[in-house]
Amino acid sequence: MAAPTDMVMDVDRPNPRLNGGSPRNYLQNGSPGSPYNGSPRSMHNGSPRRMGLDFVTLGMFIIDEIHFPPPQPAVQNIPGGAGSFSALGARIFSSPPVLSRAVGWIVDCGSDFPPALRHYLTEWETYCLMRETPDRLTTRGLNEYGEHDFRAFRYLTPKRRLEFTDLMPEMLLSKSFHLICSPSRCIEQVEGILRRRSRELGVDVSKRPLFIWEPVPDLCTPSQLDVARQALRNVEVVSPNHMELCAFFGISGSLPDSGAVDRNMVERCADEWLSSGIGVEDGPGAIVVRAGREGCYIATRKQSCWLPAYHQSPEKVKDPTGGGNTFLGGLAVALARDKSLVEAAIWGTVAASFAIEQIGMPIRTVGQDGKERWNGDRVAERLELYLQRL
């Protein structure tokens, strides 16, 4: 085994959103009583070592084959999977050499794992556990895209999904966890992580990390709704996309004529989940609905708002694969660093903008000024441009 490389606000809902203000107004005023407000955690004496990880994903690494509508040709051997893209989202907001190592994830390397890809991932300088599994092929998948946001996915080789038992001790101490799974597995993963933290590491049960749950699309069905409600009480944030959320209720999240997001239906379904309770104790958690080109919908029991997508021109979006996962990596690491829910969703929005500008991963460079850039842009500059539009 290789060594690792390197808000919840509360929808009593008067329905002017965010007390009648804009997201910009909310950022200025903050959210009284929110457990996710405050300043970022300081680093220990400026040392490159941190007290622990901010983010860990239990999503898988997958090598993707992507098929688009004609005449665009298919592409192969693209690094992907929920684990890769969520780690990307967290990494984009975590500069090396310190913050980058607060991003934890696991890559299972099969006998066919490309050496160039290994080198590429190592350059991220994250806390990445690359496990050698020479008796198997690396998990590979086929993504197919069509008109009207059609998407299909299937595995080309047997998958090796991650469990809470795979986490190293330092990973167990992460401040946040990204889970992409069915409702029942969500419950199992949360309970397993908390149990291991307590029994193996002696962590006080009151010191609870943040759990961000991304439901898997094929199990977003009415038959799963009851167990999904149980899962909601185990996580701080749930984040389906608009189609997945509405599918739990047996309805479409798109308008029949235009195919656009049915915002009214999204808000109604989100309200139902909020009423049933998200989070432990009195259920003060949040739902963040990812809605593609229309941005995202953020809601708690007291407040809600829509945030626009970063890219408003379809020409800017080359491949949506992994955009939602990248969003959640950015969101999770922001919450772990005590940002408000709206700020976290803004981080997620900006992170996702880098993921969808090309097929596969964005290009990372370091300029003569020593500053890191993704696709030629500094993250802080892109973040400021987005804030100016709110």
Q: Could you explain the architecture of this structure?
A:
- Residues 25-45 have a biased composition (Polar residues).
- The structure is a single chain.
- A 9-stranded mixed beta sheet has the order 5-4-1-8-9-10-11-12-13, with helices on both faces. It has a 4-stranded mixed beta sheet with strand order 3-2-6-7.
- Helices cover 30% and strands 19% of the residues.
- The termini are far apart.
- The protein is globular.
- With 390 residues, the protein is an alpha/beta fold.
- It has a single domain (23-41, 48-389), classed as Ribokinase (UDP-N-acetylmuramoyl-L-alanine:D-glutamate ligase, 3-Layer(aba) Sandwich).
- Helix 3 (115-122) links the parallel strand 4 (103-110) and strand 5 (127-133).
- It has helices at 23-29, 82-92, 115-122, 169-172, 183-201, 225-232, 242-247, 263-276, 323-336, 341-355, 379-389, and strands at 55-57, 62-67, 75-80, 103-110, 127-133, 140-145, 151-155, 176-181, 210-215, 237-238, 286-290, 296-299, 304-307, 364-366, 372-374.
